[in-house]
Amino acid sequence: MDNSDDDLARAITLSLMEHGSSLNHRGHYHDVAELQFQQDLRHAIEVSSSESNTPGISSKGSCSGRLKSNATTPSLETQTNTTAPPNSFLTERAQLERERLDRLKRQRGEENQDEMSSSSTKRQNLSTLRSHTDERTPTPSTSSASSSKASSSVNNQKATAVAKPAVSTNPVVDQLFWDGELRPTANLHSMPRQDGKPTFRLTEVLGPKSQITFAIISSYSTVVSWIYEFFEPRTPVILVAQPDLTGQAGIKNILPNWVMTVPFLRNGHGCQHMKFMLIFYETGRLRVVISTANLIDYDWRDIENAVWLQDIPPLPQSSPQDHKITNDFPSIMEHVLRSVNARDALTNMLTHEHPNLPLQTIGDLHSKWDWSKVKVKLVPSIAGKHEGWPKVVQSGHPRLMKALRDFGLRTGKGKAAKELAIECQGSSIGTYSTQWLNEFYYSARGESAEDWLDEPKARRTKLPWPPVKILFPSLRTVKGTVLGESGGGTMFCRANQWGGTRFPRELFYDSNSVGGKVLMHTKMIIATFRQKSTPFSAPSSFKASSATASTKGKGKSTAEPITISDSETESESEDDRAGVDDAAPSSSAKEPIGWAYVGSHNFTPSAWGTLSGSGFNPTLNNVNYELGILFPLYSNREVERVSCFKRPPRKYVLGEDRPWIQEESPVFMRA
After folding, report:
1. The pLDDT value given to residue 132
2. Is a pLDDT exceeding 50 seen at residue 557?
3. Residue from 540, 469, 453 nearest 507 by CA
4. Inter-residue contact 297 to 277 (CB < 8 Å)
5. Which one-letter DSSP state was computed for residue 346?
6. What does the pLDDT average to over 273-302?
7. Cβ burial 335-352 (10 Å sphere, 16+ → b, else e)
8. How far is residue 439 from each of residues 82, 270, 432, 541, 637, measured CA to CA in Å?
9. pLDDT exceeding 90 applies to what percent of the chain?
10. For 176-185, what is the mean pLDDT?
């Protein structure tokens, strides 16, 4: 693309931005942040220059106070206070900023000084207050706070001890995460976070935009003029989006170097709800991002979300793909890309203006990058009707079941079975039945639906509720947040759902962020094994008539299980049919105490799917396209570190508590 094309792209962007009223708020916010950053930096330099003549400057100065108050962990704050005086720290911070700017100059080589300064300023604007809130962050080589490091197979590997994060002098936008990292997103209304967790901003997720050579990004709701700002005009981007009401798959050019693709939805019903990114850099590195946030400013500014990302190095040379491998991370990612029509968009780009993209075919993901350090399991839902076990276990809650089995996280069956309690946090409530909740719960135990699919449907509709906690913000919680009721526009529960005769109101718990008084758009499931002496029903609500428990599941975990009680108010061959090894989990030196899921799936039948058919030939119906990750949890401490919500969650008091329902709010009724 020549300079005239760059100018045209910028002009189109500016024209689109003129019609985005929400951008005005955001622009003002980032301008204030930039001004504050520059003031702090000048103050740091002034203090540094006078340090030799003023030996006793107080640590209570405004700049040092701000820096100190935003330390991400107490241990880091202590280290700052004991290893160097505040003035020394400020001098170092100013020097680091100068070095970062110099490094950018060298990287951009042919670009002139004005272009470099403008890009640096935009980065500061878009990563508001990054220099204050995320200066001290774990390095990928020393921190095991990442979700993926915790997710090694329990059959072959021991759990990794959780290490304290080390001090990093690099801004987050320049850091690499070779072992993966799970963090909440930064939020205008809860910074610094009450729990001190490090965060991700969108600019930090994307990295230096001048180094991006290609990207595939996916979102349910997208403000194109807003997300376009985060890329260079010359960068080719494929945007996976929600189809129109016809539900027909298709591609179209929406901006210079931007192609939008949409997948097929039967009768236009359902959502392309996946939120992911594949970002390719000029060094050959690939960054994989699984998020709960849409590509709109509101999701990255006013409401809390979560992001998991991992950097993937290129292979020294391409290796031929083994097409028999269909269950590892890159194979499932390739299946996802084909399902959402990204292959047609890629072909279009290669054929027309960008023949030299780092990704020439979808299959290149497997053959050109080294995925050996990725330990999380990918869990997609693919909209449509899936028949037969080989297809069924690739989508929805049967895929969750398969991934749990691959991790060795089955509960087992019979007397040797572990009990499992699950806490499901989301932003949208479904239409629940005891049949579906038990269906999902059985998969969440890592047990196959072939055990119960042949039972009479009438019997399944009479099962008791399983030990599931459904987290959703109460009206009281929404009113108590920083934005109040006006901030509840992305939380969905209908009055006719809540008032339903057989709706499981007794399973509802309040959703409160550990980061502050903000609402969460994060979709997360925390599942924990526990002792059997609970007021809940036995773990096997479905009768496994033909299966017997394996004695391999009798080994006790050395990790203390988390006990959650109500008082806390609270076709193929036999092998192919199940799609998995039927052995129960074996004992190891340190077994997981549970697992976590993070991604786009709300806790609804539309997201996770519904099963029918027989144990021999099942059928799964998925309404939505969804995507998330799964990983084991090895300790109570890790459970609390991963959880985005306060635990134990507060149980709704029936008759007093009511969920947030938009249609009942005067704010939304006026709108």
Report:
1. 30
2. no
3. 469
4. no
5. H
6. 98
7. bbbebbbbbebbebbbee
8. 55, 21, 11, 9, 30
9. 61
10. 98
Q: What are the two backbone dihedrals, phi and then psi, of residue 503, each rounded to the nearest 5 degrees?
A: -75, 140
Residues paired with residue 253 on neighbouring β-strands, in sequence order: 259
Q: What is the pLDDT of residue 514?
A: 97
Residue 15 has pLDDT above 50, yes or no: no
Residue 438 predicted with pLDDT over 50:
yes
Output phi, psi for 204, to 5 deg.
-75, -30
Question: How much is the pTM?
Answer: 0.71
In whole angstroms, give the CA distance from residue 490 to residue 511. 14
Describe the strand order of the beta sheet including 276-281 as a list of residue ranges: 181-184, 306-312, 286-291, 276-281, 212-218, 237-240, 258-262, 250-255
Q: Identify whether the C-beta of residue 279 lies closer than 8 Å to the C-beta of residue 311.
A: no
Query: What is the SS3 assignment for 249?
Result: coil
Q: Would you state the structure tokens that stand for residue 159, as one six-digit string?
A: 């759990």
Residue 459 in this model has a pLDDT that exceeds 70: yes
Which residue from 469, 608, 603, 464 is spatially nearest to 541, judged by alpha carbons?
464
Provide the pLDDT for residue 61. Answer: 35
Alpha-carbon distance of 390 to 544, in angstroms, equals 21
User: Is the pLDDT reported for residue 571 higher than 60?
Assistant: no
Res 76: pLDDT: 29
Q: How far apart are CA 291 and CA 349, in angstroms?
A: 25
* Residue 609 main-chain phi, psi, to 5 deg: 95, 165
Strand partners, 272: 625
For residues 461 and 486, what is the distance between their CA atoms, to the nearest angstrom?
Answer: 38
Longest dimension (CA), the chain: 86
- The answer to whether the peptide bond before residue 648 is cis (omega within 30 degrees of 0) is yes
- CA pair distance 496, 502, nearest whole angstrom: 11
Q: Is 553 helix (H, G, I), strand (E, B) or coil?
A: helix
Is there a contact between 151 and 215 (Cβ–Cβ < 8 Å)?
A: no
Q: Which amino acid is at 81?
A: N
Q: Tell me: pLDDT of 537 over 90.
A: no
Tell which wins on pLDDT, 642 or 591: 642
Q: Is 504 exposed, middle or buried (0-12, 13-18, 19+ CB in 10 A)?
A: middle
**Res 117 pLDDT > 90:** no
What phi, psi does 639 have (nearest 5°)?
-60, -45
How far, in whole angstroms, is CA 670 from its chain's centroid? Answer: 33
